[in-house]
Amino acid sequence: MKILKSTDVNVAKGAFDNVDEDLEKCMLWLDENMPKEYTKPEDLANAYEMMSRASVFSGRIRRWQHWRFLVYVNDLLTVGVALAKKEKYHQVVQYKPTMKLLKIWQANQRYLKRKSIAAKIAEKTHTSSKVALQDTLPYLKVVFKRNKEQSSHLAGFLKLEKEEVDWLREK
């Protein structure tokens, strides 16, 4: 609230002082809630410009371990985003934590079976998992959908579990 509702530099500057999250999570939180608060496109664009610059400095910190840039990241995320708007917004907004991390986790869980099958194919065909995923898996899915007898032999050869066989037969 100190960032999204304020236009005062001193209020916004200390917004992350007592927060127990790292700046990356704070950035994701702001990314989730800024469109709800900033209803004017120009204000939202300015706020995302500040976040973009903060992200550039954050990447430089990770790449070069140049921790002096942390001051810029903090200032851009707090004061930069707070001053991106022309005037205060007075509507009441229900802020929510970011869902991006949950979505990434869910996507990884969806692709776990695919990666597991690709690893088993790669082991038997003496290729990389990436090559197995791109070149072999699409054809294997067709075989598993069309020919149950042949697919059961392939499943035994590749030592696929029942869930993996079911995944190959679906869609």
In words, what does this structure look like?
The chain has 171 residues and is mainly α. The protein is built from nine helices and no strands. It has two domains: 9-104, no CATH class; 111-169, no CATH class. The chain has helices spanning 9-13, 23-37, 41-64, 70-82, 100-110, 112-125, 129-146, 148-158, 162-169. Helix 2 runs antiparallel to helix 3 and helix 7 (129-146) packs antiparallel against helix 8. The radius of gyration is 24 Å and the shape is elongated. The model has no long low-confidence stretch (mean pLDDT 92).
What are the low-pLDDT stretches, counting only 5+ consecutive residues below 50? Answer: none
Q: Which secondary-structure class do the elements indicate? A: mainly alpha
Largest sheet: none
Compute the number of structural domains.
2
List the helices and strands and how they pair.
Elements (H helix, E strand, L loop, with lengths): L8 H5 L9 H15 L3 H24 L5 H13 L17 H11 L1 H14 L3 H18 L1 H11 L3 H8 L2
Structure characteristics:
171 residues, 9 helices, mainly alpha, 0% strand, elongated, 2 domains
Question: What can be said about this structure in brief?
Answer:
With 171 residues, the protein is mainly α. The chain has helices at residues 9-13, 23-37, 41-64, 70-82, 100-110, 112-125, 129-146, 148-158, 162-169. The protein has nine helices and no strands.
